[in-house]
Structures are given as C-alpha cells and as structure tokens.
Design goal:
Elements: H1 8-22, E1 32-37, H2 39-42, E2 53-56, E3 74-78, H3 91-94, E4 95-100, E5 106-112, H4 123-136, E6 142-146, H5 149-157, H6 162-172, H7 176-179, E7 185-187, H8 195-205, E8 210-213, E9 217-222, H9 225-245, H10 256-265
Length: 285
C-alpha cells in the first residue's frame, strides 16, 4: 500500500490550505475545507476496512444532520481548532479522512486527527452544502469556508441584497461575470457552527456556488480545489477593488451592456442571472 503522505490529493489539499493562510483568508483556526475523494484512489493508500473510531456530527451543539444522501462518501477535512498554517507540515494532526456512515448519523475516521481531535465544527454545514450542490452538479467535490478580508469588509458597508451585491462585484473586473455568472448568495449574520446556518447556506447553494456570511466570510463550492479556490479568489479581488475605490467618483465603469457582450461571447447565457442586470429584453438570451 502506498504512503498516504505522498497522495496527490493530500499534497494539493496541504498546498491549498497554506495558500489560504498566506493570503490572510484563514487566520488562526478560522476557516475549513472539505474535499470529497474518489474511493478507488483512497484505497491505494488506506485500508478502507480499518475504522480508527466513530465521530458524531456536532458543531457548537449536537447536530440533527441526516447525511444519508452522502453515506459511504469519503472526505478529507480540516480539523477543529487547527491552524491552516500547520496543515502542510503536519497533515495527520491537522486534517483527517472520514467516511460517512451508512445510517448518515456519524463519520468513521479512516486516517488523521492523530492527537485525538476531530473534524471542523462546521462539518454539518459543509455536508449540507455538499448535498445541495451535488443535487445541482454531480461533479461537485469541494466546499471551502474562509474569511477573505476585503469581502468581509464589503459586507459591512454594502447593501446585502443579492442583486446589488452581485452586480457591484461584476462591475469591479471584466472576468467576474464570467467566473461567477450566477452571482453570489448573501445571508445575514447568523450564529456559526449550528444546523440553522448550515440549512440556510445549503438552501442558497442550490442557486449559488458562493454564499456570503455577513460579517463573517465566504462559503464556496466547486468541482476541484483549484476551481473553488479560484472562485473565492476572484470574488475577493473584486471586493478589494471596491474597497480601494471607496467613495471616489467612478469615471469609467463596466456597463450592463458590456457584460451582455461578455455573456454572449463566453456562451454563459443559460447560467447568468439576467435579473441581476438592467437590460432590455432584446439584449438578453
């Protein structure tokens, strides 16, 4: 059996965590990642019949999560209370590989959390988001939660309705409407680590790959670690430009007509939120 520390999926996970820390998205033990792995690939590195221990689902309170829709799925997940900066140097302590039990009530630890730890307290919210995204996109494999500085700052000063927030982000950079044509979902401040915020996030995940937690951070989802990282990175770049501009008058802007041109040339007519743009009908679709 191969050495798990040489597994490409683990190495990529480590580097992603390090990059998120380096960019200031995941200070201290803030943020978490869950990555759904291919069972055949994992079996090259681990004995899937060997369960180290069972871990119940719980955030800051016990969870009523029913994870049967992802029963048997294997996830690589950051640990609760663990610092992203340490994942790359000691993955076996700061992360773990779990399998969702057949009855959907708990997880089986296959590797990691070697100091007796457990997965992030946000795992119930992650699994709810995974289930929501898988219903929309069967190839979804990643959920990332982080605290990008400028996106977080923007939630303090910008109206929180999804149309205006998404539209502002789209106007900050030409690539934005192409990278996240569905816009972003927005939640008001809610207590983290609870089923309530997990349910609310999952509801938004049916329509958006990015959900903003006001005064807290971002939940992002995607097919790969790269895609999800890049999605969050693009939102954060747009928020950075917005904050740099501040209250100065805008002399040159990306118009809705410009965005319609981008939408048509990149053939994203079926995925863009046309209702977030103010355009005559003949410019749509």
């Amino acid at each position: 059996m191969k050495d798990i520390l040489t597994a490409p999926f683990l190495i990529e996970f480590e580097k992603t965590a390090s990059n998120m820390y380096r960019l200031g998205w995941d200070e201290r033990n803030g943020g978490n990642i869950s990555y759904m792995l291919d069972e055949k690939e994992v079996a090259e590195y681990l004995d899937l019949n060997h369960v180290i221990r069972d871990i119940p689902f719980a955030g800051i309170q016990s969870s009523s999560l029913d994870a049967r829709p992802v029963a048997g799925k294997i996830f690589l997940v950051t640990g609760t209370g663990k610092y992203f900066k340490n994942v790359e140097s000691d993955p076996e302590t700061n992360a773990g590989i779990i399998r969702i039990a057949k009855d959907g009530s708990h997880a089986e630890l296959l590797w990691g959390y070697k100091d007796g730890g457990r997965f992030t307290s946000e795992l119930p919210a992650h699994l709810m988001s995974h289930m929501a995204r898988l219903a929309v996109d069967p190839e979804n494999r990643v959920v990332m939660h982080c605290h990008p500085t400028n996106t977080l700052a923007m939630t303090y000063v910008h109206p929180l309705d999804e149309k205006s927030f998404s539209h502002t982000l789209w106007t900050m950079s030409t690539e934005c409407v192409v990278v996240f044509p569905e816009g972003v979902g927005v939640l008001p401040w809610m207590l983290c680590g609870t089923d309530e915020i997990g349910v609310a996030t999952a509801e938004k995940m049916h329509d958006f790959r990015i959900v903003l937690w006001t005064n807290h951070g971002i939940y992002g989802a995607g097919k790969t670690l790269d895609e999800t990282f890049g999605l969050i990175e693009t939102v954060e770049k747009a928020a950075t430009i917005y904050n740099i501009i501040g209250t100065r008058p805008i002399l040159n802007n990306i118009s809705d007509e410009n965005m319609a041109e981008l939408i048509h040339i990149f053939h994203i007519e079926d995925t863009v939120r046309w209702d977030f743009l103010d355009l005559p009908e003949d410019k749509k679709h």
